Amino acid sequence: MSVGGIFTTMDISASALHAERARMNVIANNLANANTTHDENGNKIPYRRKRIHFKPGAPEITGSGKLGVQVEKISEDQTEFRKVYQPGHPDADKNGIVLYPNVQVPMEMVDMMTASRAYEANITAMESAKQIIRGSLQIIA
């Protein structure tokens, strides 16, 4: 592998670190709003879970010249809100039903662990590339 290839490897891992950090931010936002029953204007519209979408950064596929992975978009999950019977709640409808966000905390926690492990794996890949560069420089010197 050439030195340029090593730096390319580091660029790819850096793009994955950026993408996974963005993913963890989206998940943290979902967890923070897991019980939010109002929108920012005070309307009885629950928070909608956000989803992050990645796209490959392969030039032969995208024509972008960037390798690795990139955040394509962040969208709202359109699954139904959770319905909970709570007749005394201020947001309850006439039947005592309160709409809660479509955030499932256990699923978000699993997604957070997956993103965290992917982040760690890419740090390890970058460390390995740095060790290869150091070893190559020691051979040359």
Tally the beta strands: 4
| Helical proportion, percent range | 40-55%
Shape: elongated
Strand order of the largest sheet: 1-2
Strand content: 15-25%
- What do the pLDDT scores average to? 88
Order of SSEs, N→C? HEHEEEH
C-alpha-based Rg, rounded: 22 Å
Low-confidence stretches: none
> What's the N-to-C terminus distance?
19 Å
Total number of domains: 1
- Derived from helix and strand composition plus strand pairing, the structural class reads alpha+beta
H/I helix tally: 3
Give a summary of the structure in a few sentences.
The chain is of the alpha+beta class and 141 residues long. The chain is built from three helices and four strands; from the N terminus they run αβαβββα.
